[in-house]
Amino acid sequence: MKRNEFQLRVNFGDTDAAGIVYYPNYFKWFDIAGHQFFRSIGLSPSKLMKEQNIILPLLDVGCTFEHPLYYDDIITIRTVVTEVNRKTIKLKHEVFRGETRTGHGFELRGWVKEKNGNIFAVPIPDEVRRILEEEGLGNCHQTNPWLSA
């Protein structure tokens, strides 16, 4: 299945009073990773909306926390498609600091059409299914000046 990864730096605002990453940030990072993933395979959510009125709403999410993260840690988020159903896509996310996995989870997203103010799930087109089910990385060339600051 298609996969992607990218890095980011933990910001001070991502931490709690003890200096440990506040848990909701994992869900924020999963959302960012999901959007980055779709961009990396040529299915930019904004482009899908503009050109096809397709949105990718979050239907379910979960996370398991394994090790704490701290301010200034550089993390890698690895995303892979684990399921492509008729109208949903499941993504698995893993967060690493170096070689240590600090947490993992999933997002279940719908393939949903917006028309005249109404939204409804529609079948995922075969060409999209083929892209999602291909092995390999998306185009994930990331240049992030914040990582070397």
UniProtKB/TrEMBL annotation:
The keyword Hydrolase applies. InterPro entries: 4-hydroxybenzoyl-CoA_TE (IPR050563), HotDog_dom_sf (IPR029069), YbgC/YbaW (IPR006684). It comes from the Bacteria. Keywords: Hydrolase. Signal peptide: none annotated. GO terms for molecular function: fatty acyl-CoA hydrolase activity. Belongs to the 4-hydroxybenzoyl-CoA thioesterase family. NCBIfam families: YbgC/FadM family acyl-CoA thioesterase. This is Putative acyl-CoA thioesterase. It comes from Parageobacillus caldoxylosilyticus NBRC 107762.
